[in-house]
Every structure is written in C-alpha cells, then in structure tokens.
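Hey, quick one: can you model this chain's 3D structure?
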Amino acid sequence: MGAPPDKVARRAAELARTLTEHSRAYYVDDDPSVSDAEYDRLFEQLEAIEADYPALITPDSPTQRVGAPPSDKFESVDHATPMLSLGNCFDDDELAEFDRRARDAVGGRQLTYCAEPKFDGTALNLRYEAGLLTMATTRGDGITGENITPNARTIRNLPLRLLCDDPPAFIEIRGEAVLARSKFEALNKRLSDDGHKPFVNPRNAAAGSLRQLDSKITAQRPLAFMAYGIGRVDGAPVPDSLYAQLRQLADWGFSISEHVRPVEGLDGCIDYYQAMAERRARLDIEIDGCVFKVDDAATRSELGYVARAPRWAIARKFPAEETTTTLNSVEFQVGRTGALTPVAKLEPVFVGGVTVSNATLHNMDEIARKDIRVGDIVVVRRAGDVIPEVKEVARRGERTQPIELPAVCPVCASAVERLEGEAVARCTGGLVCAAQRREALKHFASRRALDIEGLGDRQIEAFVDEGLLASPADIFALAEHRAALVEREGYGDKSVTNLLASIEAAKQTTLARFIFALGIREVGETMARDLAEHFGTLDALRAEAAAYLERAERAQRDEPDNRAARERIMTAEGLQAVPGVGSRVAHCIADFFAEARNTEVIEALQAAGVHWPSATTDAGAQPLAGRTFVLTGSMEQLTRDQASARIAALGGRVTSSVSKKTDYVVVGEAPGSKRDKAEKLGVSLLDESAFIALLDDVEP
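Sure thing. Here's the predicted structure for all 700 residues.
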C-alpha cells in the first residue's frame, strides 16, 4: 500500500498510546485499567493497521514487544559509564565499619543513605536517546556488555519511550531483570509439560531468558525490569539525591521497589535491613540483601571510588541459607595452578533456591578444623547466597571414614606436594596434567589476558580432549587444523575464519597482558601491570627472577638463624622493590621462571609470533611518558581496554577524571560531560582518528 491516510495514522498513534497506558497500569502500577479481552482487541487493531501500513511501525510501538528474528550472536558494547561493583558486608559490625569510614572521610557528620532491596536477578544497562530506548546491554565485566536490545524490548514493564515531554538527549538507566516467584513456578511447569528442562531458580531463569538468540522465546518469559539507578546523562539535569532520582525514574515509567526510602545514619540502615529480612520470605521477587548508598551527590563525589567499587555504597547481604544432608564422598578437583580442592559429594538437597549435590570443603586444614568425615550429617550453606559450602558437622554418621589427601594427582598421577606453612596442596604435574592444562588455557585466552574471542571454555575443553591443545603455543597452530575445525559440529567456514582471525590478532598484545596470561601463581592483573612497568622487558623480569633465587640461597646459607638479616638481603632490590610483591609472591614468580617447562612455553609463544611493544625501564624514554589521557564515549576501531593498553604500553597513563593535569581527552561517539569539562579547562581533544594517528606515530 501507499502512504497511510491521516485518519489511519492518527488511529494507529491513538491505539499505541492507549495500549502503552494500559500496559503501564497492568505491569507497573499493578492496577489493570481494562480486561485482558479488551486489551487484546485493541492490540489486534494496531497489528492490523501496521500490517497494512508498515511505515506506521515505530520502535516504541506495543507490537514491537513480541520479539525480533533470531540473531547469530551478541555484539559486545562498551557502557558509556562503567557499571560498578558493590562491596559486601555480612553483619552489623561490617556495616558499622563502612559507615564509620564514610563519616570519617567527610568530617564525621551523620549521613543520609538511600536504602533499597538488592534484587536477585541479572543486571541490565538501558540506553535512551531523546527518550527512545536505543540499546540494552548486560552488565558483562562492568566495562563492556552484550547487546541484547531485541530481548529487552519484550519485557512488558520496561518503557520503550520515557514518559516525559522533555527527555534527556542521552541517558543510561541501570536495573535488574527479574522473574517473580509466582511467574517462575508457572514457567517451570510449562517447560516441564513441554518436555524441556526447568530452571533451577528465578535468577537463572532471568539470565537464561535474556541470552536467547531468538527474542521470540524471551517474549514468552514473564520477565520484569526493576530500575535502581542512572549512569551517564546528557542534555537534562537529574536530581542530586539518589532517592529523588528513583522517584524520577518512576515518573518516567519505570518500576522501582516500593520499599525504597531514605534512612538516617547507621541506625536507620540497621532498622531497614531488619525490616527487609523479616519481609523477605513474603516478597514475590527474590532479594539477597539490602543496598545502602550515600544519598547526596556532593558527598558521593567527596568519597569517590576504590578500584571498581564506590566508597559511598555497600550491599548488606542476608545470611546464607542452610540445611543438613549426608556427605557421601569427597573428590579432589585440580585447578589452574595445580591446587587440589576437596569437593563434598552430597545427598542432593534444596538450599537457597538451588538443588545442591556438590559443596566446597576449602582445604585439608578446614577439614581437620571442622573434623569432617565421609558419612557425616553436615550443615550445607550457600555462602553469600552463591557458593555452596560445608559449614560444619551436624552429627556424626554411623559409619564414617576420615578424609585423606591423595598422594598423587587424581587426573595425571603426578606427585602431590604441600609446602610447609601452606594450606593448599598442589599437583606437581604442571601442563602435563590435563586439568591444569585446561584451566591454564582458559585463563590464557580469557578477556583480561590475550582476549581470544571464540575460544571459550567449551572449545578449549574439547580441543584438549582431542589432543589439539597441550600448551598455550598450540593455540597459534590451530590454523594448521582448519579443515578439521570446519567439519566440527557447530562450526563452519565463517566461525573458523573468525576464530583464526582472533588468534592472529592476539599475537599483538602488551607485556602486562602477557605476564598475566602466563598464569603465574599470586600474580593478578594489577600485579602483572606493575611488574611490566617496573622491569620494562620480559628478559629483565626473568633475569631478576633468577637473581632472586640466587639471593635466597645465599641468604639461607649466610644467615640461617637470622630471619631479619635474610629479609634485608631479599628486599634490597629486584622483585620485592615492586609495590605489593612480598616474599611469598616473589617466590612464586621466581619459581615459575625457574621451571624449564614454563621457559619452553614462553619461547614457543614468542616463536609463534606473540609480541608486544618494546619498552624500557627508563620510563622517561617512552614516547608517552608523563602524559595523561582520559577516554570518553565509544570508539569503533578500539575497545576501551585496547586503547588503555596501547597508551600504557607507550608509557602513558589513563585516568577516569579530567583535570588541569590531563594532557588529552579522547572523544568517541556519544561522549559525556568529560568533553565539556576538557573544553572549559583548555585540555586538548582528540577524536578517534587523531588518537590512533598519535599512537601510530609514536609506536616503535
């Protein structure tokens, strides 16, 4: 058909507006304004008009909630502002310590907190532009999430357009996708009746529903969205008070908890927590604690952040749910560093919304301290409502057996070693051990290490089992097996091409990422970066590791009975001059590089073409030494992590806030207020092309 008549266009707009109002009354206000039959009649009218005149279909039309055609993958998208983690506390003393630290930082005055339930679902970040929902992403790692916009559009209480006349030009709305207990039970019954496996709990159901490649399936799941905050906002003011912000979100059409309210000081937080703990069992939406955030913006700014968590917020978690069951046997699992973790095999029991048949026993010291034996009736809890663990023995079983540490690895039969003073026992097999090999390869390919897209846990496990991967260097030889890979179930020419391209791209990395990817015990991402910055080259780090062992032998020989003298010898230079590297960490680093098999892996990786920009221990000689960058907005050619890594590799520094000391603000698409602040301060602005040109010009 041609252009729709004005009368038809007006009728379509009227129907869309009426249906949106009825949906809000039903899903948000819990106060239906029409019968289901009347709603369906109006919906069918709008569907018929849009079928005749597709030009009338708008992104916020009620008909667009039914789902889009299936997708073949989820696109990775950077959040405009990070989705921060929250610190946890588990008792009133820890909550009091949080309140004390916050008050001390602002002169001791009592603080007002915005108190709210902590929903047990899956976090979402919604992007609205000029009031219209344009993107929805999962939390991901807090910096980058997955684009699940078609799935989010099917959530009935999620506004596709903000209910306001003058919306912000750009705003991020954060919240939790949840599934009510009552809806969860009905969903599981339907799945079981249809011959499908039911979900184990509402949180699992919400997460699984949002990650469907076919959003029509998501549309059949009764998800709800509960808003809890705002990320970046441009083009309109928002209240400084977090409580007022939530009321603003409710006015714009979002569901928020009816239990959100401001509370005064520590006593107000404790009273709120106790009240919510008492209400918890009666709520239809599962919660696993309460969240307390300093309410006013000025104080939040003053308190700031530590790592990826704000100093002005904390989650007070509910106690772990507990029950009793029989400990039938114990298995020992082998991790990436060879650590043997005893795992209790339990008579299955339902605890904390999950059927538990396995639980951690931590280590042999804990087993001895709790005097746990096979055959005991034990108390099982979900620690922090997440990890099942054996808390204690409820009563001794009739026939019990002591739990013994195996003398050899249950996977590779290598000797098991437990060093004096350490609680953990380890397999000595290294990469000879298939379990260590799998976990080491997963770590090596992970996003924070060499970031090899398409080489996930399942693929690595299969490739190890089939003999394709025995060491990290084998990853870079997978191209030799292209024909076999294409024939694998679930693969094809396109997916194999993408995987091999990602492997090829991973050859260019940074020294910090490479050190982290090696999986050295006790060396995390931050420590790897500090080692890279301190030593500048891998050869320098390896040389110092060897020198450290020589000093250790000399110290033990010369000062066998004088610990202080030995410490002076060991800390005078080298590894322990790096911040955070104590004797334990230094020994782990030195022992790693002393192992011939680890040296062989490193040399094989370098022979395969893995490389990084050269650096020097003289920071002043690096091309971007002393220069500070701030990144804002999203870029097309580089992720935020990649941009930060290239800056760091050239001696530059990336910070999160703009000041007079900032040298450059890199402006991507949809930049935030940092660009405006940079202009006011006279800081140089670089668009993406200019930024990449700068990097290319100064890179060796």
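One thing worth noting: The first helix runs from residue 6 to 28.
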